[in-house]
Amino acid sequence: MPTLRVFAPATISNVGPGFDVLGCALYRPGDTVEIEACDAPGVILGEVTGDGGALPLEPARNAATVAAAAVLQRAGTANSVRGLRLHLHKGMPLASGLGSSGASAAAGAVAANLILGQPLSPLDVVQCAIMGERAACGAAHADNVAPSVLGGFILIRSYDPLDVVRLPVPDGLFVACIHPHCEVSTAEARRRLVGRTASIADVVANTGNFGALVAALHQGDLGLLGRAIEDRIVEPVRAAMIPAYADVKRAALAAGALGCSISGSGPTVFAFTDAAVTAAAVARAMRATFRDRAALDSDVWVGPICRDGAHMVP
Amino acid sequence: MPTLRVFAPATISNVGPGFDVLGCALYRPGDTVEIEACDAPGVILGEVTGDGGALPLEPARNAATVAAAAVLQRAGTANSVRGLRLHLHKGMPLASGLGSSGASAAAGAVAANLILGQPLSPLDVVQCAIMGERAACGAAHADNVAPSVLGGFILIRSYDPLDVVRLPVPDGLFVACIHPHCEVSTAEARRRLVGRTASIADVVANTGNFGALVAALHQGDLGLLGRAIEDRIVEPVRAAMIPAYADVKRAALAAGALGCSISGSGPTVFAFTDAAVTAAAVARAMRATFRDRAALDSDVWVGPICRDGAHMVP
To answer: A227 and B197: CB-CB below 8 Å?
Structure first.
């Protein structure tokens, strides 16, 4: 039987003041799912590689298989395929703030939809991928899953009902992402927000910045985009969980970044720039700072925003 | 000496979840300033009409004269005009939630800039108008002043430094405004917010809606605009100050409004529609509800968003 391979990109979520509502897709890193039809009903999880043995092998707890099973179920009995077998190749660090389980879920959902002949709409595929992320994480934050499936910048207006809005990717926008080799638990990062409240003044500042960020994407105003990457509510709480974060951010801005903030719940830090060479320089500056101030090695990824989401690869 | 007349439009501020950061301009109502150069230095306040005697006649406390004086001072001594005299004709109710002092300040600032030969940029004129509103109100909320000066939808990204962003006005958008004959003190409305905080869940909901609102204006998606007019943080506090507000909003939506909320600190209520006839029907439904449920008469204004701000009139 034929095998399909689908790559799903890592994503920056919580972009600036867009906590839980704005994410965007990168070209690299990302996860790859290989999928094939099989006679046994349901979805079987074959090999999992690249995770260092950290991921559960039960299909019911794996983001990719749960997402694929959701697609299979929605497609219904009209489809001639009874079951699916998939292999997951992690191409990105876990608990990095780059939407690792979201990328696995996106790859599983898109791969299943492709092999079934695309019975589901893109929004339905996003909903199946959300189910995968929820099974793996206990919670689903569509600002990872949706841009990993759909590509570009995706705004989540509402979770219930799910209402997602594609925002334009301005020409000339580049991003530098750096993952220092330390761990931030997403669950712990969430716990630190429990019971927190925001002052009206901070709500006003964040609302103004987030509106400006959305306007900047539509108007292609990269200077405005940079000024709008300012979050007074969540970033201050999460900055404390990343060693030397303030120094790294300062170094990124000094090296020419338009704006800089935390991806997801960290420890990955991202910076936007208006030129590829600046993104490379910003990545170098951030890496040197993590090394010098926190004795941390890092991985970096530099490139444009990926306008395509999860897609078939040879 | 020649006299110039400038009309400055009323504005809806706090549009939906855009508390203190988003306003838009109406065609009517609005204030008119007549201005002429004079030999005495400074700005003299002549006649004030239409206010029922409620406004102070000292130039230092009147929004229009303070704004005009700020323009005169910024223009500097290079300008041959030594002093200005202005007359203010209020064309809108005070304390209505329609930016009454903002319109007076906008009219004064734009009139002064015009008679001096436009030495100031539009953004400088906005800053002078902000000074006028602050003198009259004790606080300046640029989401009234800026759209009254500039027209259309104006986003305030930041107050310090002032950073304003023009957003597009979608074709086919109409608004119905209703001012019930009761008073809401802006100061009291502000007091009710003092010490209030917002939960993270409400911040997420408001951020998603506000981003969607800004995207909807750029994408011309009126359905999305309507869904995004939802504010979980400020509207619930202010709704309690307007008799029968929940009934009026329900009536507006039942009559076809895309979305409905409070303008400024109220009591004016606005609703967006996608057709002129629907706006008229929504206005009738809201008026009937204020009458039947709260025994209040109302004034209504129906029309498109005014893309021009304060401008010279014959």
So the answer is: no
What is the residue whose two structure tokens read 């395929």? A81
pLDDT at B77: 72
**pLDDT tens digits for range B196-207:** 999 999 999 999
A200–B199: do the CB atoms touch at under 8 Å?
no
CA A16 to chain centre: 14
Interface touch B200/A210, C-beta < 8 Å = no
Helices B100-115 and B63-75, interaxial angle, to 10°? 30
CB contact (8 A) between residue B211 and residue A209: no
Burial class (CB in 10 A: 0-12, 13-18, 19+), A41: exposed
Cβ(A242)–Cβ(A269) below 8 Å: yes
Q: How far apart are CA B237 and CA B59, in angstroms?
A: 34
Q: In A126-207, which ranges are E strands?
A: 153-159, 162-167, 174-180, 197-199
- The whole-angstrom distance between residue B89's C-alpha and the CA centroid of its chain comes to 17
pTM for this predicted structure? 0.96
Token pair listed for A101 = 């389980």
Min Cα–Cα distance to chain A from B218, Å: 7
User: Do A312 and A5 touch, CB atoms closer than 8 A?
Assistant: yes
Beta-carbon neighbour count of residue A240 at 10 Å? Answer: 11
DSSP string, A53-98: T-S--SGGG-HHHHHHHHHHHHH-TTSS--EEEEEEE--S-TTSSS
For A34, A109, A152, the CA distances from A67, given in Å and listed in that order, are 14, 5, 21
Look up residue A88 and give its two tokens. 């997951």
Domains and CATH numbers, chain A: 3-167+307-313 (3.30.230.10), 174-304 (3.30.70.890)
Closest to B291 in 3D by CA, of B236, B254, B235, B243: B243
Tell me the shortest Cα–Cα distance from A42 to chain B, in angstroms: 36
pLDDT of A138: 83
A209 with B234: Cβ contact below 8 A: no
Do B5 and B306 touch, CB atoms closer than 8 A? Answer: no
Mutate to test the interface with B, among A19, A199, A214, A217 (most CBs of B within 10 A): A214
Chain A residues whose CB is inside 8 A of the B156 CB are 208
pLDDT digits (tens, 9 = 90+) for A86-137: 999 999 999 899 999 999 999 999 999 999 999 999 999 999 999 999 998 8
**Residue among B32, B186, B268, B278 flagged as catalytic:** B186
Distances (CA, A) of A115 to A4, A207, B123: 7, 42, 56
Neighbours of A55 (CB within 10 A): 22
Q: What are the residues whose beta carbons fall under 8 Å from the beta carbon of A73, sequence distance 6 or more?
A: none
- How far lies A42's CA from each of A67, A116, B26, in Å? 12, 13, 58
CB atoms within 10 A of CB B166: 17
Find all residues with CB under 8 Å of B109, minimum gap 6, and list them. Answer: B67, B68, B70, B71, B125, B126, B128, B129, B132, B149, B310
Give helix B100-115 / helix B122-137 axis angle, nearest 10°: 140
Torsion over CA of B231, B235, B239 and B245, rounded to 10 degrees?
-30
Q: With H, G, I as helix, E, B as strand and everything else as coil, classify residue B146.
A: helix
List all residues 6 or more positions away from B194 whose beta carbon is below 8 Å from its beta carbon: none
**ipTM attached to this prediction:** 0.94
For residue B157, give the nearest of A193, A196, A209 by CB distance. Answer: A209
